[in-house]
């Protein structure tokens, strides 16, 4: 057995006209099977992470200098002889390894010219241009790399491609996210008369992106034409992300449209930025479209993308889609991190998906993940809105014992609201005391909740006392505060309503005037109540109009003044505040009550019964086959009974022929025949109220 070795085994490296840039992971057997074709196929520089091409070898130079195997005769060498091992050490495999060790020595030396020069000199072999590239390409120390570059440039005579030496040095700086010195090196290039190429700019752009400086990336991108450099598709695709992060949404989306048309390859980072852009602009359908498009292109979503999608669906109040995305995340083998859980708590908390939010909360606790004050407050606010009293107390105690979170004003506000809405006076008062001890003065929102609590407990004197405190603190009552007083009046015994009328008159005189007209036993002139109530409704915000009307009607019903209740309901219908209460089709007439308070619902039922009587018995109009009442199927968050249960009981008292539909939750139905018979018996007996 025998084999031949070139008498000049490193001739590839010593050819000054050949400048190849070899990746750090070059296999040891690379040059044992050297051919120009092999070298060309591996000539990409693996020196950048975000843009996978920065330097290309010119094939013409490779073809111009092929190794001339026939120019010298090669002696036969016994592979077992000492001579063979000596020749192996001279092979490129050994040469490449020695250059890697040189790079390691330069990384470890002190960052000064003398020490760098000493390490290079001790290498003991002439370094050619391609040796310099391999050495710099394998370096990691951003402090010594520029010094090594300068030293090698001084030692080499007339390097043919200085730009590649600068590019691999900038790459070393990029590894350490050192954009400042990368830009200084660029200026050194220009001063030395070296013209930057595409690889120079793509390396600087990717460095700026890695440093989280998208605007700088955009600046470097926009400099390319002035140096005669045309960005390719990979660079342009990367700029979608840079422009998006820099705030130039129009340019980012324009590039993305071009990318779709020209079928550029877009990475997951860029898709993540596009999702963020659409989410920030409120185009949540756009977020989902990007997600589906990236999957269709075979780009696998990463955890950052999943988290951004979850956050966007939370802002969109689409908890059901957050659930789907969460399942996708798990099924694709990702482990939720803190950001995942935080996004889910925000999504479920905002949408009041109480059970789902609590599952995520407890899963975080099991995994030892800490919640922030904002996440605790999100959970507490959710509990306040859906009536999870015990859960709120559990979360509050966990927050205090966490050692990392301190309750703030929002925390106490939510906790007091939870206790107040279910009438737990002692707990609400204790929370109010704790709030003050923590250095937080109660806001109008908190005092509104306290008044609601006393009202639920029918402690009218405490309501008046708290109202006086509001005035003493110099706080001006707002519309919600006045609405709370009005709601408390609907819960107050008739003999004590007068105390609250005085409070309402002080807080909002116009409201006080309307309330006095409702409370007075004597009837006012026709049209006066409606006129005053209309002026009141016109003076308040649209977000509280229905609540005010509901409370005014409830107050009338509680005082057994059905006539005034009907007058207020009629006003609401005329102002289109109550819309869609009645609907008619060829097969069914319906009454829709699910948006009304109990008193308003009973009043609307009374009016509808009278309308049916007028239509069927007076006008002789033919009733449809079915009549229905829709109450919805929910229950009040702080009550054990919903409107459906209360109405069912009331219909039984009236002996009305409406029965709950087994296949339609919240619907009570009857036939036209049964309804007409009941209406006739009702009129004959003289029933005029509900």
Structural description of this entry:
PPR repeats lie at residues 162-196, 197-231, 232-266, 267-301, 302-336, 337-371, 372-406, 408-442, 443-477. Residues 591-676 form the Smr domain. InterPro entries: PPR_rpt (IPR002885), PROP1-like_PPR_dom (IPR033443), Smr_dom (IPR002625), TPR-like_helical_dom_sf (IPR011990). This protein is elongated. It has 690 residues and is an all-alpha fold. It has 35 helices and 5 strands. It has a 5-stranded mixed beta sheet. The chain has helices spanning 11-14, 36-41, 59-64, 82-90, 92-108, 113-122, 129-137, 145-155, 162-175, 179-192, 198-210, 214-223, 233-246, 249-262, 268-281, 284-296, 303-315, 319-331, 338-350, 354-366, 373-386, 389-401, 409-421, 425-437, 444-456, 460-472, 479-491, 497-507, 509-519, 528-538, 545-558, 562-574, 598-618, 643-653, 672-685; strands spanning 582-584, 588-592, 626-630, 659-660, 667-671. The model is unreliable at 1-72 (pLDDT under 50). α25 (444-456) runs parallel beside α27.
Brief rundown of the structure:
It is built from 35 helices and five strands. It is mainly alpha-helical and 690 residues long. A five-stranded mixed β-sheet has the order 1-2-3-5-4.
Q: Which helices and strands, and how do they pair?
A:
Layout (H helix, E strand, L loop, with lengths): L10 H4 L21 H6 L17 H6 L17 H9 L1 H17 L4 H10 L6 H9 L7 H11 L6 H14 L3 H14 L5 H13 L3 H10 L9 H14 L2 H14 L5 H14 L2 H13 L6 H13 L3 H13 L6 H13 L3 H13 L6 H14 L2 H13 L7 H13 L3 H13 L6 H13 L3 H13 L6 H13 L5 H11 L1 H11 L8 H11 L6 H14 L3 H13 L7 E3 L3 E5 L5 H21 L7 E5 L12 H11 L5 E2 L6 E5 H14 L5
Parallel strand pairs: 2-3
Antiparallel strand pairs: 1-2, 3-5, 4-5
Helix pairs in contact: 5-7, 6-8, 7-9, 8-9, 9-10, 9-11, 10-11, 11-12, 12-13, 13-14, 13-15, 15-16, 15-17, 16-17, 17-18, 17-19, 18-19, 19-20, 19-21, 21-22, 21-23, 22-23, 23-24, 23-25, 24-25, 25-26, 25-27, 27-28, 27-31, 28-29, 29-30, 30-32, 31-32, 31-33, 32-33, 33-35
């Amino acid at each position: 057995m025998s084999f031949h070795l070139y008498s000049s085994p490193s001739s590839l490296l010593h050819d000054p006209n050949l400048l190849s840039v070899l990746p750090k992971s070059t296999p040891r057997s690379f040059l044992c099977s050297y051919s120009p074709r092999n070298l060309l196929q591996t000539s990409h520089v693996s020196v950048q992470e975000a843009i996978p091409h920065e330097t290309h070898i010119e094939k013409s130079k490779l073809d111009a200098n092929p190794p001339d195997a026939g120019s010298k005769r090669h002696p036969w060498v016994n592979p077992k002889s000492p001579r063979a091992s000596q020749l192996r050490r001279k092979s490129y495999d050994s040469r490449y390894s020695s250059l890697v060790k040189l790079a390691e020595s330069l990384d470890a030396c002190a960052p000064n010219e003398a020490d760098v020069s000493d390490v290079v000199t001790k290498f003991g072999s002439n370094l050619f241009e391609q040796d310099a590239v391999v050495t710099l390409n394998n370096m990691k120390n951003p402090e010594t790399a520029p010094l090594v570059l300068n030293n090698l440039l001084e030692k080499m005579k007339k390097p043919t491609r200085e730009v590649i030496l600068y590019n691999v040095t900038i790459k070393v700086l990029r590894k350490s996210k050192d954009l400042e010195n990368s830009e200084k090196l660029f200026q050194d290039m220009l001063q030395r008369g070296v013209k930057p190429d595409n690889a120079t700019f793509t390396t600087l752009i990717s460095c700026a992106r890695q440093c989280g400086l998208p605007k700088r990336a955009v600046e470097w991108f926009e400099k390319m034409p002035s140096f005669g450099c045309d960005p390719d598709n990979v660079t342009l695709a990367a700029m979608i992300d840079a422009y998006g992060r820099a705030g130039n949404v129009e340019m980012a989306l324009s590039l993305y449209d071009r990318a779709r048309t020209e079928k550029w390859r877009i990475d997951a980072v860029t898709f993540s930025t596009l999702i963020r852009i659409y989410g920030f602009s409120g185009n949540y359908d756009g977020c989902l479209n990007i997600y589906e498009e990236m999957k269709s292109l075979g780009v696998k979503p990463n955890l950052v993308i999943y988290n951004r999608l979850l956050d966007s669906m939370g802002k969109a109040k689409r908890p059901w889609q957050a659930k789907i995305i969460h399942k996708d995340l798990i099924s694709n083998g990702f482990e939720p991190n803190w950001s995942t859980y935080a996004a889910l708590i925000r999504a479920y908390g905002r949408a009041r998906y109480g059970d789902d939010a609590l599952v995520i909360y407890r899963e975080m606790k099991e995994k030892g993940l800490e919640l922030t004050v904002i996440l605790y407050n999100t959970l507490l606010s959710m509990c306040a809105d859906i009536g999870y009293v015990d859960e709120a107390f559990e979360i509050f105690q966990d927050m205090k014992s966490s050692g990392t979170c301190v309750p703030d004003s929002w925390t106490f506000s939510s906790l007091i609201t939870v206790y107040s809405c279910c009438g737990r006076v002692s707990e609400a008062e204790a929370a109010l005391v704790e709030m003050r001890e923590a250095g937080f003065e109660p806001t109008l929102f908190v005092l509104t909740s306290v008044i609601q609590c006393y009202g639920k407990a029918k402690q009218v004197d405490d309501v008046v006392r708290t109202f006086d405190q509001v005035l003493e603190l110099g706080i001006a009552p707002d519309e919600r505060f006045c609405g709370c007083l009005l709601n408390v009046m609907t819960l107050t015994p008739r003999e004590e309503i007068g105390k609250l009328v005085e409070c309402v008159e002080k807080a909002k005189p116009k409201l006080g005037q309307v309330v006095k007209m409702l409370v007075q036993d004597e009837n006012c002139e026709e049209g006066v109540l409606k006129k005053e109530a209309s002026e009141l409704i016109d003076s308040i915000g649209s977000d509280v109009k229905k609540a005010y009307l509901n409370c005014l009607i409830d107050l009338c019903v509680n005082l057994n003044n059905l006539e005034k209740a009907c007058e207020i309901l009629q006003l609401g219908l005329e102002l289109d505040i109550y819309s869609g209460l009645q609907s008619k089709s060829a097969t069914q007439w319906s009454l829709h009550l699910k948006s009304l308070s109990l008193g308003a619902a009973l009043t609307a039922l009374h009016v509808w019964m009278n309308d049916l009587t007028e239509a069927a018995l007076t006008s002789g109009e033919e009733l449809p086959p079915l009549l229905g009442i829709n109450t919805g199927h929910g229950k009040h968050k702080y009550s054990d009974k919903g409107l459906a249960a209360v109405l069912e009981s009331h219909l039984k008292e009236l002996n009305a022929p409406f029965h709950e539909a087994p296949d339609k939750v919240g619907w009570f139905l009857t036939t036209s025949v049964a309804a007409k018979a009941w209406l006739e018996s009702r009129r004959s007996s003289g029933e005029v109220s509900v």
